[in-house]
Amino acid sequence: MSGVAGLLLRRLGAGLLTVVTVATLCFTLLHALPGDPCDFDLGETATAAERAQCRRDRHLDDPLPAQYGHFLRDLALHGGGRSSVHRDRTALQEIAEVWPDTAALAGSATLVAWLVALPLALLAATRPGTRTDAAVGVLSLLGMALPSLWIGPLLIALFCVVIPVLPFPGPDASGAASLVLPSITLGSGLAGILTRMARASLREVLREPYIAAARARGLSEFAVVVKHGLRSALVPLLTVGGAQLSALLGGAVITEKIFDRRGLGSLLLESIQRRDTPVAIACVIVVAATVVLIQLAVDLAYAAVDPRIRME
Amino acid sequence: MMLRLDGRALLGLPLVALFALTALAGPWIAPYSHRAIDLAHELAGPSRAHWLGTAENGVDVLSVLLAGARLAGTVALSTVTVSLAVGTLLGGGATFVGGRLAAVVARVTDAAQSFPSLLVNLAVLAAVARPGVGHMVMALAVTGWVGYARVARAEVLRLRDREFVDAARALGASPWRVFTRHILPNAAGPLVVQATFGLGAAVLAEASMSFLGLGPGAAASWGSLLDQGTAHLLRTPRLALVAGGAIAATVLGFNLAGDWLRDRLDPRRNP
C-alpha cells in the first residue's frame, strides 16, 4: 500500500506546485496592469501623506522580489490578507461566506446531470439505430446547445410566474426549493454532454469480448449491461464529470446572476470590478486548488472503477 | 464531395444564415434606432408600432435584436479568426517542428483546458476599465485558441508521417511549404468543424459578458437586453425570453451545423 501513499504525496506536491504557479501568475499579471492599487482604494481625494502611508502598508515601494515574498507570506499565513473593500474581513472570510452556496449549486447541478444522463445513455446504447436512440441524440444536442441564459428565465417564467409553485428567486428565497431551478438550468447543459459521451463509451464497451462472455455465462441482460458494461464505460466519463465540476466553481456566474444567488464566480467578478485584489487572488487560488483536488479524486476513482489501472 | 442534408442541417443552416443576414443588414432594416427613447411606452407589450414590444425607456425590442446581431457577429467572427490562427500556428506548427517547443505547447494546452475558461475571460475583461469590442475579442481569444491548438496538434500527429508528406520532403520542399501546402489543407476539415462550434460559443460568450455588464456600453447587445429582461422578469417575462431566444436560436444553429458537418466531413464517424 506504500505505493498509494507515495502516489498521493507526489500528486499533492505537484498540486501545490500548480497552485503556487497560479499565484505567481496572478502576482505578475497584477503588476503588469496599469494603475496604482492605492488610487483605487483611496479615491481621488486622498492626500499625498495618506497615499504614502498606503504604499508603505502594502510594501509597494519595496523591490519586486521582496514584494513577491510578502505576497506569498500573506497568502500562506493570513489567507491572502484583508479585503480592501470590507476592511474588517480577510479574503478567506469573504470566500467562506459564499462557499456553501457554490458547493450546493455545483453539487446539485452535477447530481441532476448524472441522474438524467446515465438512464438516457443506457436506453440509447442498448437500442442503437432505433427511434429511441435518435430521440436521445436530439435531446442531448438540445441540452448542449440551449444556453442557461435562456433556460433560466424560461424556467422562472414558467414555475414562478405562470404556475407559481416555486419561490421567485431573490435574497429571501432559501432552502432546497430555491435550488431546484438553478440546478436544472446548469444541469441540463452538463447532462447533454454526459449523455453523448456515455452513449459512445457504452457502445464501445458493449462490443468487448468480455461482454459476450458474460452473456454466454447466462447473466441477465440487466447484469451484463449495468454491472459489466456501465462500470468500464464510467472511466472516460469521470474525466468529463471532473472537468464539469471544476467549471461549475466559477462558471456558474451566469446562473448565479439570473437566480440572484451568491457564489464564488460572482464574488470573483465583483472583486475584480471593485479592484479588491486580495479577494480576487484568493478566489482564483481557491478555484485552482479545488480543480487540483477534483483531478486527484478523479484519478483515485479511476483505480476504484477499473482494476486494470494501477497506481503508478 | 456531396454534403447530404439531414434534419440537423435543415434546421441549423437556415438559423446560421438568418443570423449572418441579420448581422450584416440588421442595423439598416431596423424600424427604429436601438437608442430611440419613448418614455410613454416603457416595457409595453407587442403592438403594430413595436412588433416585439418595448424595453426600458421605451426602446423598440426588435430594433435592439437586429442591431445586437451586428455586435454578436463581429465579436464571433473576430474571436474565431484570431483563435484559429493562433491555435493552428501554436498547436499545429509546434507539433510539426517537434522537440521541446511541442512538449511545452502540449503541456500549456492541457493545463489551460483544466481551468474554467469563462473565469479567465471574465478576469481579463473585468480588469479593463471601459471594455470595448477589441478587449472582448482579446479576452475570448485568450482561452479560445486552446481548442484549435488541440485539434491542429492531433491532425499534425496523424498526417506528418504519411507518404505524401515524405514525398513532398523528398522533393525538397521546405518545412514551411510542407506545413502550409500539404499538412494544413488536409487538416482543414476538423478545424472548420471546430470553428463552426466556436462561432456559436463566441456568440454565447459575447451575450454572457454583456449580460454581466462587461460589454461595450454604446452598442446594442442581446446580453444587455437579457440583463434588462431578468430585472423585469416578474412584470414582463417576454423581454428575457425574446433576448434569450435570439441567443439560444443562434447557438443552436451553429451547434446543429457543426454537428452535421463533423459527421459529413469525417467518414470514420459515420455510423
Short description:
The complex is a heterodimer of chains A (312) and B (271). Chain A is mainly alpha-helical and 312 residues long.
Number of helices of chain A: 13
Low-confidence stretches of chain B: none
> Tally the helices of chain B: what do you get?
9
Give the helix proportion of chain A (percent range).
Answer: over 70%
CATH homologous superfamily of the largest domain in chain A? MetI-like
Q: From the alpha-carbon coordinates, what is the Rg of chain B to the nearest angstrom?
A: 22 Å
What fraction of residues of chain B sit in β-strands?
under 5%
What's the N-to-C terminus distance of chain A? 11 Å
Mean of residue pLDDT values of chain A: 83
Order of helices and strands of chain A: HHHHHHHHHHHHH
Query: What structural category characterises the helix and strand content of chain A?
Result: mainly alpha
Provide the CATH architecture of chain B: Orthogonal Bundle
Q: What is the CA–CA distance across the termini of chain B?
A: 18 Å
The greatest inter-chain interface is formed by: A-B, 42 and 38 residues
Description:
The complex is a heterodimer of chains A (312) and B (271). Chain A has helices at 2-32, 37-42, 48-57, 64-78, 91-125, 131-145, 148-162, 177-205, 209-216, 221-251, 253-258, 264-273, 277-305. By secondary structure, chain A is mainly alpha-helical. Chain A has 2 domains: 2-91, no CATH class; 92-311, Orthogonal Bundle (MetI-like fold), CATH 1.10.3720. The longest helix of chain A has 35 residues, at 91-125. In chain B, α3 (99-114) crosses α5 (133-159). Chain B is elongated and about 75 Å long. The two termini of chain B are 18 Å apart. The mean pLDDT of chain B is 85. Classes of the chains: A mainly alpha (312), B mainly alpha (271). The A-B interface holds A 18, 29, 33, 128-129, 141-142, 144-147, 149-154, 156-157, 161, 168, 243, 246-247, 249-251, 253-254, 257-258, 265, 268-269, 272-273, 280, 284, 287-288, 291, 295 and B 8, 111, 113-119, 122-123, 126-127, 200, 204, 207-208, 211-212, 223, 226, 229-230, 233-234, 237, 240-241, 244-245, 247-248, 251-252, 255-256, 259, 271.
